[in-house]
Amino acid sequence: MININKVIRTLILSDILIYSSWGLIAPIIAVFINDSIRGGDVEVAGTAAGVYWITKSILQVPIGKYLDRNRGKIDAEKYDFWFLVIGTFVASLTPLILLISSEPWHIYVSDFVYGAAMAMVIPPWGAIFVRHMDKGREAETYALESSALGLGVGATGIVGGFIAKFIGFTPLFIGVSVFGILGTALIITIKKNILSREDDGGRTKHYARHIKRYI
Question: Is the full-model pTM beyond 0.85?
Answer without folding.
Answer: no
